[in-house]
Amino acid sequence: MTKECGHHEDEQRQLFRRIFAGILAFIILILFIIFLIWIILRPTKPRFILQDATVFSFNLSSTGDTPSPTSPTPNTLTLSMQVTLSALNPNSRIGIYYQKLDAYASYRGQQISLATELPPTYQGHRDVSVWSPLLFGTAVPVSPYVLDILRQDQTSGGVLVNVKVNGRVKWKVGTWVSGRYHIYVNCPAYIRLAGDRDNGIGVANPAVKYQFLQSCIVDV
Fold first, then answer.
1. DSSP state of 127
2. What's the rounded Cα separation, in Å, for the pair 210 and 199?
């Protein structure tokens, strides 16, 4: 009787091992198929272009005083501009979900505008999406280093402002949707100041519109 019980328990263990091995093999097979699809399709990161920018204000306010630990820096920058960004999905078989995208302006590595949230978007195969966020920052404190560089740029007649986008993307293949990936976009925009409007079109005081069609750096 004892031998029969032991034999029965061994059979149950073998059955459980076979079931577990079957489930594990099935999971590995599914992951392998997904991996093969991923390798075959090879998703390409989207291409961003900064089409234009309408600058309403770009003003530096400085008292000339030296900042101290007891007194906040008196050097501030006020910016207001609307940009047009387009994104192309170059993939012929893969869709892209854009989620939690924030656009903002940066100068010499310092953020000079508030982050503007872009609406979530799904982009089909070889589709193009366009956003026109308004970027603004009022009396943004700037460091003494940034102040010195900004004065030099103003003397030369223009400043290089970087329009940046941070967010998340997902890839869609058929009904399968990948996990979230971080996307970082950097679009350089050279803005002429000191009343030089040679590159501006549709000039309406004080707003000046600049056409760029500038390719952006995209990291995913």
1. -
2. 6
Percent helix, strand and coil across the chain, each rounded to 5? 25, 50, 25
- pLDDT for 150-189, tens place per residue? 878 877 878 899 999 999 999 998 888 888 999 999 999 9
pLDDT category at 73 given cuts 50, 70, 90 is low
DSSP element (H, E) containing 71? none
Nearest to 55, CA basis, from 117, 142, 113, 109 = 113
Tokens of 194: 């000191």
Tokens 């040679």 found at: 198
Mean pLDDT calculated for residue range 17-42: 79
CB atoms within 10 A of CB 50: 23
Q: Which residue has the tokens 């590595």?
A: 109
CB 105 within 8 A of CB 79: yes
CB proximity list for 10: less than 8 A, separation 6 or greater:
none
CB 163 within 8 A of CB 50: yes
Confirm if 90 and 128 have CB atoms less than 8 A apart. Answer: no
Match 């740029």 to its residue by tokens. Answer: 153
**76-103 pLDDT, tens per residue?**
888 899 999 999 999 988 999 999 999 9
